[in-house]
Amino acid sequence: MMKTIRVALAGNPNAGKTSLFNAITGAHHKVGNYPGVTVEKREGLHEYKNIQFRFIDLPGIYSLTAYSLDEVVTRDFLLEEKPDIVIDVLDSTNLERNLYLCLQFQELGIPVVGALNMTDEAETKGLRIDAKILSDTLGIPLVKTVGTSGIGIEGLLDAVLATLEKAELTPGKGQDKAPSYGDEIESRLGPLQEAIASDKTFVARYPARWIAIKLLENDANALKKLEQHERGTEVGEKAAADRAWLSKHYGKDSEIVVTEQRYGYIRGALREAVKKVPVNHVQVTEIIDKFLMSPIVGLPIFFLIIWGIFKLTFALGELPAQILEHFFGLLTSASQALIPPGLLQSLIVDGIIGGVGGVFSFVPLIVILFLCISILEDTGYMSRAAFLTDKALHAFGLHGQSFMPMMLGFGCTVPAIMATRTLKSPRDRIATILAVPFMSCGAKLPVYVLLAGTFFPKNADNVVMAVYLAGVVLSMLSTVFLRKTVLKGQTTPFVMELPPYRLPTWRGIFWHVWGKTWNYIKKAGTVILAASVLIWVITTFPQPKDADAQPESTRSEYRLEYSLAGRIGKFIEPAIRPLGFNWKIGVALIPGFSAKELVVSTLGILYGAETVDGEETESLRSALRRDPDMNPLTAIVLMMFILIMPPCFASLATIKAEAGNKWLIFQVVYSFTLAWLVSFIVKVAGGFLTGA
User: Fold this and answer.
1) Among 238, 355, 628, 642, which is most exposed with the fewest C-beta within 10 angstroms?
2) Residue 567: pLDDT band with limits 50, 70, 90
3) Where in the chain do CATH 3.40.50.300 domains reside?
């Protein structure tokens, strides 16, 4: 049986951890959640020298002092799951900051290997790193890597094997030596560590040196863990006395003392191992940032880029979308020719092809949109956009770090809500969670494209862009209201590193786009297929006995109104009539709570069943145009309602997991109310302006 090694892949944000993970595991990875939380985790497999490496990709963090959910997940995983070894991915261009986390991994006493990643960028900046000297100083193996190209991976895996072999020969020894923080701190750490080690059961779970250091830092989590120690009160009192001594000796809090000593140790190590040589050229990042980060033109350029993405999405995606739509039209005709008229033909044509086909037609647009966003993320521009929007977000009661979850919301609301875990303030997290659903996720795009393409064929891209912007504006205004009412409090300062600009790798972009697109296709082929069949059932049954007695031009409409879906639609129609929606729109909105794409598939089933002069309509778009209740204003109102209404069930489940039942209920009620009010205002204002 092949031996398996569990490797925790950790590191600071923007250190290239994801690139290294993808380079090692390729397509052999899966995505799930850590037990008990909705923080995403990825696991990947790689076979090397007849040994299977199981990589667990931990969230990018700056410290093991747990303030955010990311830090909690990483700390608890290392303590509870006890991986065989940690690979700490270090940004070679910013070693002082990155080694701070590395020292904390060493304090845990588990084997650590450092990946000096992005060494190509360090060389370009004139940084010459002597990996051997630095390795000897820190007491852990360090291997130079370039995650984007896969350089150094074999050397990294060899270092992992060598480190584990050494650890097996010397049980309990995670590295050659532990970091030393000066005589004053070490004189306090030694006796405190011995007192903690007196409880063998306790130190079997928690490393004695790590707990001792955390107690000197007055870490709340370590103090709570001390309750499990058989001499917890005595150890706690000793730790308090040690903290008081350090504070008096240094004239500052003991936590600050430990932090400064860590950085002092790091600077000493780097002084010997890293040399800075002059470079003759100006850094490309600095040149670009002078323009893109300008306080005058920075934001306009950002909005221009986003507008350009929408123009490009429609310019390149409309033709393949039409080809797919034509393909499903041919499939419909072929099915009608091969299958005799009746329920089976109706199920295949109206239920499956009409429902799923309409959603599949928008895959090209989804691919192009995801491609553009992935390129922006991989180049490092998104971090700049977060800084550009920080001041504006603060003005509306949001945090600068809220930008990334909100941008992720344009792809999918679920990971966007998960991304709020990086915000340390509970109020900032809740405010961002409630703002994210206003971002138009990829599931809403097919609805916008259908309605904009049907009623605004010459300006569909601009209309969709306007709806996206409306979501942003509404999220800002809504947050102002919430921060002045149910979420009063100060927003915390925004601190974030700006990574250098990097050329995205086609391999990395491919996996980003493929993963998101495949999830969309899987949903269309599973959830939406099942829902489409269910919708066909409720739009087909029960069947009126006198349907054949009706005029042929109204027969389909009569059957629809008699069906269960028709009765549901007629029941809720009074509530939505003020918005200009008929009962069919009401029926289409209901499955939209499960997945917004189902609005399109439901409309395809409802309108695809219609006939004109005894013949099937050419397409859903033409059927919508022929409906007297549908017009450009109604299309805009419907897009606004889809934009604001509560997100899908998966998103609501994520809100419950991240924020609790109270905020889940609030989100549903608030979104419903706001969706109706805003849609009504748009309907009335639009009618006044157009004279309708």
Assistant:
1) 628
2) very high
3) 3-169
